[in-house]
Automatic annotation (TrEMBL):
Protein name, entry field: RNase adapter RapZ
Alphabetical UniProt keywords: ATP-binding, GTP-binding, Nucleotide-binding
UniProt key word Nucleotide-binding: yes
Domain (RapZ C-terminal) ranges: 171-290
């Protein structure tokens, strides 16, 4: 049985601690930012009282310099008290070269937390000196000089997430919508199927939806429907592993027709079934399917 884990995220300012914390949050760690060092033991005692016990990740850095100076002593004491290894205490130290840190501060136009007018490079050197003790206790040091946010997130997911948990991070949502109600703002891929024959113009089908068998059959008998679907399916099957490798947690694929009741619903429904058959974690959502036609406008 895997022991509960407390990860202390620390390191030089600008090295990526916020990105790291969000990655741990995606791994279902309970995350806390800017925790005073002296509160760490009590914080962890509270976490261990949860049932089941949860993993936690906390960011402790130099935003409060006076409190931070106690961190190495606090961590060493916790290590000494954990001789029976009832839990795993890990110190993740994020670092980067001075040149890269200076470049990041210039890019973001933010001041170093120790800024006192001496210049960013001098502030970084002062911070490194203050961090020497806690860095010596680190269980892992990651140099993020050549990492963007995506690469750092991917590194942490690989280091701290077991295979099953990492796999479960990526989810696909297939949805339908009507363009007349606006395209979904959160869609990653938008597919327009308005070129297909519209069941709206058949009075027998007008008030049905793409889930209903008669409408579903009508859509797939449309000229080009099957060929277009197969091409989209091939593209999506090719792209999904690459989106997952990129480090995405969610991908939303949206099929749109005029009103989101007929053609887009049939496409989204069939695509969902195909992706489920290929073992992708997928959900199906029909945003506008239940809307009623407005003043005789086509749906």
């Amino acid at each position: 049985m895997r022991k509960p884990e407390l990860v202390v995220i620390t390191g030089v300012s600008g090295a990526g601690k916020t990105v790291a914390m969000r990655a741990f949050e995606d791994l279902n760690y309970f995350t806390t930012d800017n925790l005073p060092a002296e509160m760490l033991p009590e914080y962890w005692r509270l976490m261990q009282k949860q049932n089941p016990v949860i993993n936690a990740a906390v960011v402790i850095d130099l935003r409060s310099e006076k409190i931070f100076t106690d961190l190495s002593h606090v961590v060493q004491k916790m290590l000494n008290q954990n001789q029976d290894q009832a839990y795993q205490l890990k110190i993740l130290f994020l670092d980067a070269t001075d040149a890269e840190l200076v470049a990041r501060y210039k890019e973001t136009r933010r001041h170093h937390p120790l800024s006192a007018g001496a210049g960013t490079l001098d502030d970084i050197k002062k911070e490194r000196h203050l961090l020497d003790n806690i860095k010596s206790l680190a269980t892992e040091v990651i140099d993020t000089s050549n990492f963007g946010p995506r690469e750092l997130r991917k590194n942490i997911l690989g280091q701290y997430g077991d295979r099953q948990a990492h796999s479960n991070l990526f989810k696909v949502q297939v949805m339908s919508f009507g363009f007349k109600y606006g395209a979904p703002l959160d869609a990653d891929l938008v597919v327009d199927v308005r070129f297909l024959d519209n069941p709206y113009y058949d009075p027998k089908l007008r008030n049905h939806t793409g889930i209903d068998q008669d409408v579903y059959n009508y859509v797939w008998q449309s000229t080009g429907a099957e060929e277009f679907y197969q091409k989209e399916l091939d593209l999506i099957n090719w792209a999904l592993p690459r989106y997952k490798t990129e480090g995405r947690s969610t991908l939303t694929i949206a099929f749109g027709c005029t009103g989101g009741q007929h053609r887009s619903v049939a496409f989204a429904h069939r695509m969902t079934q195909a992706l489920q058959n290929n073992d992708w974690p997928v959900t199906e959502y029909h945003r506008d399917m239940q809307r009623r036609k407005d003043n005789g406008q086509q749906v």
